[in-house]
Amino acid sequence: MRHWAAILLVVTAETFLVSISSVQAAQAGKSPVKVFILAGQSNMQGQGVVDMDGPKDYNGGKGNLEYVMKHSPDARLYKHLKDASGKWVVRDDVWVSHKTGRGKLLTGGLTIGFTGYGGKSHIGPELQFGHVIGDCLDNQVLLIKTAWGGKSLYVDFRPPSSGGKVGPYYTQMIAEVREALASLKKHFPDYDGRGYEIAGFVWLQGWNDMCTAPAIPEYARNQVNLIKDLRKEFKSPKLPVVVGELGNGGPDVKGSMLAFRKAQAAITDVPEFKGNVTFVKTAQFARPAKESPNVSHGHHWCGNAESYFLVGKALGEEMKKLIKAGPTK
Q: What does the DSSP 8-state code read for residue 82?
């Protein structure tokens, strides 16, 4: 009897220790919080229509997220967005913080609606970017979106190293990131207080610079300075950076759009950025206006949710490559 009791005690103790180790490992895997800054202008804010289908302004629903999920030949790509009951999934392992241009702070688990509109009517690149990164990392993830419509790198986001007046939205971008990080426990009660790491920066911007003749020849230099200044600000000299192409209009463009895209892509020619900064082409994700919600809004991908979803996916996949390739410090 004592023999069996001893065996039972050993097995129980071992099981208990294994259980404790499993819990500790799971908890350790979630800390620190991995923070990704998503910055830019209106297309980073998000203009992908979710479900509005009014015949006058939204083209009978063509190209909105609900439509795409039902009619896309790649419908399997979107299955994770809704649960078995048809409700939009909310991820508790990926948080989002976004202050709209109207000053409203949106916080919570990743789902639809983290855009400048403040409701549930639109998505931006953050939706699928967050799913890609959330699936990639064991850590808790926080996406800080800091974006405003109609802003240039030439003036509004102008980084300190470019000289002249520092752009007010560069300053505000830094302030919003710092504010979000200082308020983690307030806005995300599940935060365990074990710290955070700025793990990546995503830049999706360019329309206003493309429309400002003097800005195009200066853009490549300003973009380099932006990355260097942000790395200095957050003390992360190898911070992974993904730059998204101004892909509106599709692959076949000329004039200032083509010149601007070349200025963006020049980021890949900077020797010190090899392996930690990447450029993502997005023009292939443009969809015809007639198949989109807002037929006259070419500057916003015509509101096509498929475009925003695929842009977010591409940005996420590139970021995943960078963070798996090496340390962020």
A: B
Domains and CATH numbers, the chain: 31-325 (3.40.50.1110)
- The answer to whether 312 touches 124, Cβ cutoff 8 Å, is yes
Task: Note the pLDDT of residue 183.
Answer: 97
Smallest CA-to-CA distance from 303 within 126, 72, 51 is with: 51
Looking at this protein, which amino acid is placed at residue 9? L
Find the DSSP H helices in 93-239: 126-136, 168-182, 184-187, 207-210, 215-233
Residue 102 structure tokens:
């109207």
CA–CA separation, 149 and 299 (whole Å) = 11
The confidence band for 2, taking pLDDT boundaries of 50, 70 and 90, is very low
Sheet with 33-40, edge to edge strand ranges: 105-110, 91-99, 141-147, 33-40, 196-204, 241-244, 277-280
Using CA atoms, how far apart are residues 48 and 302, in angstroms rounded to an integer?
A: 8
Contacts of 254 (CB under 8 A, 6+ apart): none
Hey, which residues does 198 pair with through a beta bridge?
A: 35
Which residues partner with 88 through β-bridges?
A: 82
Establish how many alpha carbons lie within 13 A of residue 100's alpha carbon, considering only the half-sphere containing its beta carbon.
Answer: 15
Could you tell me which residues are beta bridge partners of residue 242? 202, 278
Q: Cis peptide before 160, with omega less than 30 degrees from 0?
A: no
Amino acid identity, position 136? C
The residue behind tokens 């909310």 is 90
What's the pLDDT score for residue 11?
36
- Tell me the whole-structure pTM to 2 decimals: 0.90
